[in-house]
Amino acid sequence: MTSTGQDSTTTRQRRSRHNPHSPPHDSSVTSKRGAKKGAVLRSSPKLAEVKKKGRMKKLSQETGQDLIVGLQGLDLNLEAKTLSGTGLVFDEQLNEFHCLWDDSFPEGPERLHAIKEQLIQEGLLDRCVSFQARFAEKEELMLVHSLEYIDLMETTQYMNEGELRILADTYDSVYLHPNSYTCACLASGSVLRLVDAVLGAEIRNGMAIIRPPGHHAQHSLMDGYCMFNHVAVAARYAQQKHGIQRVLIVDWDVHHGQGTQFTFDQDPSVLYFSIHRYEQGRFWPHLKASNWSTTGFGQGQGYTINVPWNQVGMRDADYIAAFLQILLPVTLEFQPQLVLVAAGFDALQGDPKGEMAATPAGFAQLTHLLMGLAGGRLILSLEGGYNLRSLAEGVSASLHTLLGDPCPLLESPGAPCPSAQLSLSCTLEALEPFWEVLVRSDDTLEEDSVEGNNAEEEEEEERPWQPPVLPVLTWPVLQARTGLVYDQRMMGHYNLWDNHHPEMPQRVSQIMCRLEELGLAERCLILPTRPATDAELLTCHSAEYVGRLRATEKMKTRELHREGASFDSIYICPSTFACAKLATGATCCLVEAVLAGEVLNGVAVVRPPGHHAEQDAACGFCFFNSVAVAARHAQAISGHALRILIVDWDIHHGNGTQHIFEEDPSILYVSLHRYDHGTFFPMGDEGASNQVGWAAGMGFTVNVAWNGPRMGDAEYLAAWHRLVLPIAYEFNPELVLVSAGFDAARGDPLGGCQLSPEGYAHLTHLLMGLASGRIILILEGGYNLTSISESMAACTRTLLGDPPPVLTLPRPPLSGALASIAETIQVHRRYWRSLRVMKVKDKEGPSSSKLITKEAPQPANPGSAEGLTTLEGNILDTSMGKTTLASSVQESTPPQTKSEAAVAELTQDQSSEAAVPDPTTSEGAVSDPTTSEGAVPDPTTSEGAVPDPTTSEGAVPDPTTSEEAVGGAELIQTCPALCTDNQTPPASPVQGATPQSSPTKLTGILRILELDNKAQGSPQPQIPEEERLLGEAAGGQDVDDSVLMQVFGDTDQAMFYAVTPLPWCPHLVAVCPIPEAGLDVTQPCQDCGEFQENWVCLSCYEVYCSRYVNAHMLQHHEASGHPLVLSYVDLSTWCYQCQAYVHHQAVLDVKNVAHQNKFGEDMPHSH
Questions:
Q1: Confidence category of residue 1045, pLDDT binned at 50, 70, 90
Q2: Deepest of 548, 686, 1002, 1121, by most Cβ within 10 A of its Cβ?
């Protein structure tokens, strides 16, 4: 599905967007003066003159006025106050609580001690604006928490140790201290103080270094070290007190912030993004709601974003990819006015809880990316982090970035691993229906065919990554931030025959005037300029060509005209050679200052432009290729082949730059330009997407070829997020040079595109995270004096450290632009791992977050009947909320089959209880799980995995079985909660199967049955493995027709696959009252009239068929967002959002009414 731009229509349920009409542009203007020789016939000089003068007149009278109107909303005025300063709340009182009964508890005062020591050592405390912490009032806490819960927490101040421990044991992974309540109130108040300061324009951004953490705390529940949910309270406070309408919450703690998610999962005013360790539910907090498939519901559907990591060892590249591919695009559409970060640092390498491999430099990158949002209004609130050194350095790195320091160079950026790519693909699939900006071309979802050595590299990538020793970060000490080169002598180059030529001297003088008016020039360090030396020019140009241009200094007017006409789109005057040398030399001066650390970044306001200049020819207004010479100069003075990224955003393809470096892997050249199928200047196929470089330089030339006009902010940012930045981070440049032509700007007479100054500012900001912030912008084209002045001013502001202006996208990216991006991605996926996308094969199944590629395990002896195995001994005493093991457990045979099964003996009253989370993966000591809301994963949803009694108390699926328990083994399931004494047994999931035991007998021992097709002695029809997994609205497990319920000997013992439903889910609030007319379980599907396998929606009570009939209930869910449905076949309740069955008091009334209608009597044991 692709978007068609402003007039696009789609069948997806995306939100409607306002698409204002864009001002008209002259799309017929497709080249600079004169086409490339041999490409097309030239117009007569007279006709060309008429066209040119008409364009310039139109620009001055109409387009220029439209541009001025469009720029009125851009805050670039001299009088505008630039916010500065980073707020910091750090209060020693927050260390006045600890665990009284366990000195080794990870969440302790030493965490803040380590942070303070690091900040003092690096001099960061003195650089921040210090704020005094304050206590959150009860009324403020009640924005998220219940008064009863707050009052209960308040009473803990007066409890003794025994009472505190008893209360703490009723929650999951918490401890209590007499000062816990006071410190939690102080922690919440600290974040609120920063909210007031940021929204009150006292500071630009801030960080609250607080404890206890907060993101697990729920409405009336302590959880995971957390009492009050600080960021949730802060979001509601910002909305209530400051009138903020849209808040983004980013949670990068390694644990999922379920408390925050549950608070906002129905609220479209808060976008919640969490990136966390999940491991198919095996990692704490063990919630299906933590998976990618949970996107919110009701009006909040699409506003919950979960990126679950399903393996340990995730690196910076994985986290950055999640931000680039998902968070930043969605956020641009969401347009937050405030960004809050639940900043846990337990994903850093060395953390004992997270077991991830992110680095402090990586968290600096994430912080930098967020600083481009919401006008820079960003607040970080400390959550987890339990390796003291990693925690301290992670906090320090983020604080450095908030203060405006450049991001350190990443040690080993690489590309996202296959597991991360799969998680991202699944999340994108879940979100695409709700966000227009995520629409992708189908081409980008094709799987890669890896050949030769690449296959070996792919295998290497999948192996667990061993992190290196945590690097010691260094932060540059700069006297000035941004260098500026300009020389008025460059105006000496002008057209002797045409005063209206677009490449006019006023281009540079107008830019400098605007920079001075806005006070930007005086904030920069003005650097001296010089002409380029012959040695510098000869690194990119031939001696013959340099000599030829030098000779023009002494030519007469007629000779100059003739010499200019011998090139493509060139005029020459006696000062041209000197001006061209000065432009190139000034750029080299700026490179020297950046590499010497004199400045961090820079702007070169130079002319004539350079990126069309070839090794031995002038072209397209260009004489010497300033960017190319500067790149070679940088490598020369650094003494090695410095990795340099050249980004060319001029609307015309930089043919000269491409040709100079097309065989050089040390220079990555990325160009975004109008191509128009080869008809836009410089014509031909040189700028096509399939031009990738030659020899060793293959893959290091990247062309994004626009095939039409009207490309604007949405298109360029989509290219940045999907293509430019992923490749750039993988390349990991040491210097970034930008061929900064502004002829793609709104109002340019040649470009016909719509980039805004705000858009250029955001493109610049995103590039500033690379190369330790060493980035230089060199002016190329741009022929509307207002456009280039405002655009360069916006970029300069950003280089100086001001946050980019708020950017509003009037429409999603044009479909033609998406096709161009997809085409380039398709070409370059073989060279860049970061562009490889894992296709989601099963969009419906709850376990489709794992791409099944392994073959089903085969028994050692296919002819043996031992493929049919039952195990006895795993006894679940769920009435006590605990799991016990029988004295003996039989081993499954043959030993090669890893899908070992265990027998669960359940009684009919024990079915609604949950098993105990693995205490080794939670955030501390695990208490009674029955008090933790939904803290246990459904073992049936991990691709058929069975709880391994050896891993914990029987609750966590064995990772060795998670992928391989399906295949040869086909499992039957039924919900024991529904098998009551007087109830007709649930229908078999196999059509036509007949129950062989009475409901009373079915409440006996339930065994997990492993059936191997080959062990049955006859071939069986194959079903795709994805369809064998637990489905939705399907009446139970989808199984092979050969699988029947087996009864052996005593019919009191039937063998089933036992499904433990969730005892609670956060979407039960969507259950609406039963209609007065009651329920009719014989009612047909409202769409197709089918009577088989129908379900009723528990929100609107409409009846539709399952996905195994015509999938109308699934379609109803996708259209309405209603999460819960009830089966008229077996009266089970399914939650689409949790992707699990649910058995809870909230659905018993409707189940009972359905049971009465179906059987004429109440459900027994309906408690």
A1: very low
A2: 1002
* CA–CA gap between residue 992 and residue 676 (Å, rounded): 61
What's residue 470's pLDDT? 61
Q: What's the pLDDT score for residue 964?
A: 31
Contacts of 808 (CB under 8 A, 6+ apart): 335
For position 1073, which CATH number holds? 3.30.40.10
Mean pLDDT score, 636-650: 96
Residue 1103 CA, distance from chain mean position: 37
Cis peptide leading into residue 468 (ω within 30°): no
- Among 611, 612, 633, 762, the active-site one is 612
The single residue listed with the structure tokens 């408690």 is 1167
Q: How many angstroms separate the CA atoms of 703 and 688, rounded?
A: 6
Q: Is residue 46 part of a domain?
A: no
> Interhelix angle for 230-242 vs 180-199, to 10°?
40
How far is it, in rounded angstroms, from Cα 625 to Cα 752? 25
CB 364 within 8 A of CB 407: yes
Closest CA to 320 of 734, 826, 720: 720
Q: Is residue 1119, in this structure, part of any structural domain at all?
A: yes
Residue in this structure with the two tokens 């308040």, named with its chain if needed: 154
pLDDT at 402 over 50: yes
Is there a single domain that holds both residue 413 and residue 484?
Answer: no
CA end-to-end distance (rounded Å), the chain: 47
Cα torsion angle, 589, 594, 596, 598, sign:
positive
Domain membership flag for residue 673: yes
Percentages helix, strand, coil for the chain (3-state, rounded to 5) are: 35, 10, 55
CA–CA distance, 847 with 966 (Å, rounded to integer): 12
Q: List pLDDT tens digits, range 1066-1113.
A: 788 889 999 999 999 999 999 999 988 999 999 999 999 998 888 999
| Domain match, 501 and 390 both | no
**Closest by CA position to 943, among listed 918, 958, 922, 965:** 965
Same domain, 403 and 514: no
For the segment 433-459, the average pLDDT, to the nearest whole number, is 56
Domain end point (choices 808, 835, 862):
835
Nearest to 784 by CA among 21, 19, 23: 23
pLDDT at residue 969 in the model? 32
Residue 541 annotated among the catalytic residues of the structure: no
Q: What letter represents residue 950's amino acid?
A: T
Distance CA 349, CA 347 (A): 6
* Of the residues 818, 835, 852, the one at which a domain ends: 835
Kindly report the pTM of this predicted structure. 0.72
What is the chain's alpha carbon radius of gyration, rounded to the nearest angstrom? 33
Rounded average pLDDT over 547-569: 97
SS3 318: helix
Distance CA 613, CA 548 (A): 14
612 as an active site residue: the answer is yes
The verdict on residue 58 lying in a domain is: no
Q: Average model confidence (pLDDT) for the chain? A: 79
Domain count, the chain: 3
Mean pLDDT calculated for residue range 236-253: 98
β strands within 611-747, DSSP E: 644-648, 667-674, 701-706, 735-740
The model's confidence at residue 1028, banded by pLDDT at 50, 70 and 90, is very low
Per-residue model confidence (pLDDT) at position 67:
52
- Can you give the pLDDT at residue 1139? 84
The residue range of the domain holding 521 is 480-835
Q: Are residues 360 and 485 in the same domain?
A: no
CA-to-CA distance for 621 and 572, rounded, in angstroms?
Answer: 9
Answer yes or no: do 185 and 115 share one domain.
yes
Strand partners, 97: none
The encoded tokens of residue 277 equal 């360790």
Residues 523, 612, single domain; the answer is: yes
- Return the residue matching tokens 């707050």: 150
Residues 486 and 422 in one domain: no
pLDDT confidence tier of residue 1063, bands split at 50, 70 and 90: confident
